[in-house]
Automatic annotation (TrEMBL):
Membrane spanning stretches: 7-26, 32-49, 61-81, 128-146, 153-173, 185-211
Keyword entries, A-Z: Membrane, Transmembrane, Transmembrane helix
Taxonomic path: Bacteria, Bacillati, Bacillota, Bacilli, Bacillales
GO CC, one annotated term: membrane
Protein name: ECF transporter S component
Pfam families: ECF-ribofla_trS
InterPro entries: ECF_substrate-spec-like (IPR009825)
Source organism superkingdom: Bacteria
């Protein structure tokens, strides 16, 4: 097992559970907001290290920066329509074509950058992690040819929309008083159904519209400059 894979397993399956146990013990089931932020930030570490340790060149970083900028611009353009966000789609397209690490970074960077416009807060790490994970998952799926079909893009878009909503609902529940309980979580998830529908719809729309034109350009850049060939 590679060192970075071992580090990821330790962080995700040992360090994070220990932090949760310590948090419950020391804070008496309170301060979940603080603990959750720490957990999300730690969960991001293996993905960032995985990308950084292989010493990417300037072109790779530039491509991710451009995709993040397009994502931010798209989110700003559709700010008037609640829940209709292109961030997942752009992170996914980057992941499909350039690999899991690029997908994760595009999603995470898009979140923290766009929140300069929409407002930073404790929810930002949740958005970074959630959009990053969706981009990372797209990178894993992109290694198969199935993602070239519209049907699979639609399925991914719907599932990604639901997952984004469910993960962010965790933050919604904890933002009330710093604690978590399932009753409020299910209530929040039910209340968020219209937004969940919009998340999924926006994913499908942007993936169907942008996958081919942007995906083809990313593919040409990858081939021409030999970037991301080892993901």
């Amino acid at each position: 097992m590679k060192k970075k894979q071992l580090l990821s397993l330790i962080l995700l399956f040992i360090v994070i559970p220990l932090i949760l146990i310590v948090g419950v013990t020391l804070f008496n089931d309170g301060k979940y907001t603080i603990i959750s932020i720490i957990v999300v930030l730690i969960a991001c570490i293996p993905f960032f290290l995985s990308f950084e340790r292989r010493k990417p060149n300037a072109r790779e970083i530039l491509v991710i920066a451009v995709m993040s900028a397009i994502s931010v611009a798209g989110r700003a353009a559709f700010a008037w329509l609640p829940g209709f966000k292109p961030v997942t789609a752009f992170a996914a397209i980057t992941g499909f074509k350039l690999g899991p690490e690029a997908g994760f970074l595009t999603g995470a960077v898009s979140a923290i950058t766009s929140n300069i416009l929409f407002g930073q807060g404790p929810w930002t790490p949740f958005q970074m992690f959630t959009w990053g994970i969706l981009g990372y998952a797209a990178g894993l799926l992109g290694k198969t040819f199935l993602m070239n079909y519209k049907a699979t893009l639609i399925v991914y878009g719907i599932i990604a929309g639901v997952l984004f909503s469910l993960i962010m609902d965790i933050w919604t529940v904890m933002s009330y008083d710093g604690s978590f309980n399932w009753t409020r979580y299910f209530a929040a998830a039910g209340t968020a159904l219209p937004f969940t529908f919009m998340y999924a719809l926006s994913n499908v729309v942007f993936l169907l519209l942008m996958y081919k034109p942007i995906g083809d350009k990313l593919e040409r850049i990858k081939v021409k400059y030999g970037i991301m060939q080892h993901h």
